Amino acid sequence: MNTDRRRINGPSGGTSAPLFVQAVKDVGYLQSLRPERTRGPNELRTICKLLQTSIVPSASGSAYLEIPMSRSTTTPTTLIKPSSALKLVCSIQGPKPLPRSVPYSPSLVLTTTVKFAPFASRTRRGYIRDAVERDLGVHLETALRGVIIGERWPKSGVEVVVTVLEGDEDGWWGDDELGAKGGGWGVLNVLAGCITVSSAAIADAGIDCVDIVSGGVAAIIRNPGSKKGNEVVRVLDPCFADHKDIVAACAVGYLAGRDEITEAWTKGNVGARGNELMEGATHAAVGSLSVLKEALLEAVEAKYQGQATVGKLSAKKTETTEDVDMSG
Amino acid sequence: MALPTVALPGQLLGPATKYAPGPGTHIHDSNIYASIAGPVTSAPTPTPKPSTNPSTSKPTKPLPLLSISRKPSSSSAFAPDAGILGINSGGGSNILPEVDSEVLARVTRLGQRFATVEILVVGGEVTREGFQGVVRREDVRGTEKDKVKVEEVFRVGDLVRGVVISLGDQSNYYISTAQNEYGVVMATSAAGNQMYPISWKEFRDPKTGKNETRKVAKPL
């Protein structure tokens, strides 16, 4: 691994709360800490009031999205959080003229960057972009390219920068202690969040789009509560820490108005249930779209409030002049 | 169908047979959809001049133009957060120079065949960052094009009003000043003083009393 020698790096092993001997030795106790999904299979995590636009003043458009930690029913007996939340900031620079070295482009040149903050996950991340971050950036670019009307902005470029302040996990932290490896599931939730938050930021920046794109995730999990023990169910908006055995998962970027998918990323063994999985992901995307629309409407109203009052004032002025005319 | 007051990207506004698409909208399946978030305005389409497109068959009745304003209109320049040049004067707005848009630009460099300028204002709106443009020697004025010498019509630092004639190549927009209204609007002399125009081709320094040649824009 290439280390960053320009900065003072934190401990590489992570900075989570101490884990006591009881947790490691007594497997039963450790298992008792495992979080469980308390929502129904088609129920989404609530992101109401946790999506906000125009938060970075220097950017032409920006948005913040938070998907809170799923609430567990059991009272916490440990300091370690059962699962993580998802917190994303997106800022948009441009459209601005392309640098001299870039050849002529008749449409908008889109650059996307996804970067995890060093403190975004339980194990510390580096400052240099790694393969996962580059991968996420490419997927986000595909999702956004299908929605932006690039021909309206010739000879210009736009940069979409998403910073992950807290990332969703690949699995429960206790499984890591027990030696199980996460399957990289968490990036799907991060991607869906990135799509939703950058869509809000693009609308805030006033870049022409054919529709609002929103992200959604669905997963097929093996249900341990079932009689046979290997029955699979589909869940929307999964929190991967809540599930022990994940079969497959899918993240999509979905245009609800046109019923189009601009981006799909599937992981795991989908089998014959691919359509069902994809459909579930689009349902989850529609769920986040409703919040997205509400937040955007609120932002537009706030932005144009001044204009409305000025309009009213001028209307009043004409009224008074009319009155004067009549009296005179 | 009644028009919504505020639209979001992808929102259906109306059929293309009843309205004409304006800025901030697009057509999909012969319906007009919004493409940016903002208040919807419907205005009668300005009747096209017969000289501009005589070939196109005119519709019997002009369709109302549907558009979505990109930012609070200039009438709200009295808003408390407006800068000295009106709203967005600090941050500038996301606006691109287009062909036929009137621009204000500052001369940054003079060459044998062209003057390099930095476009600061497009169509009355301050841009977020400057766009690079050139005024070629043959685009400086409409007459005696072959006798133009760039160093006799511009000086570095002058403010020039012009019109974009082409999006140009990868780095430059092409600007023309070949009309009476276009040319240098603010000029500084060699002594560093602000000058005033005295004729179509000369500015005078009020302190030293010396004249300098420029392609002078006709004062509005």
From TrEMBL, chain A:
Residues 51-207 form the Exoribonuclease phosphorolytic domain. One of its GO terms (biological process) is rRNA catabolic process. Keywords: Cytoplasm, Exosome, Nucleus, RNA-binding, rRNA processing. Gene3D superfamilies: GHMP Kinase, N-terminal domain. GO terms for molecular function: RNA binding. GO terms for cellular component: cytoplasmic exosome (RNase complex); nuclear exosome (RNase complex); nucleolus. Belongs to the RNase PH family. The keyword RNA-binding applies. It comes from the Eukaryota. It is found in: Cytoplasm; Nucleus. This is Exoribonuclease family protein. It comes from Amniculicola lignicola CBS 123094.
From TrEMBL, chain B:
GO terms for molecular function: RNA binding. Keywords: Cytoplasm, Exosome. Coiled coil: none annotated. Transmembrane segments: none annotated. One of its GO terms (biological process) is RNA processing. Residues 6-41 form the Exosome complex component N-terminal domain. This is S1 motif domain-containing protein. GO terms for cellular component: cytoplasm; nuclear exosome (RNase complex); nucleolus. Residues 1-75 are annotated as: Disordered. PANTHER family: 3'-5' EXORIBONUCLEASE CSL4-RELATED, EXOSOME COMPLEX COMPONENT CSL4. It is found in: Nucleus, Nucleolus. Its main location: nucleus. The keyword Cytoplasm applies. Residues 52-75 have a biased composition (Low complexity). It comes from the Eukaryota. Residues 96-125, 129-167 form the Exosome complex component CSL4 C-terminal domain. The lineage of its organism: Eukaryota, Fungi, Dikarya, Ascomycota, Pezizomycotina. Pfam families: ECR1_N, EXOSC1.
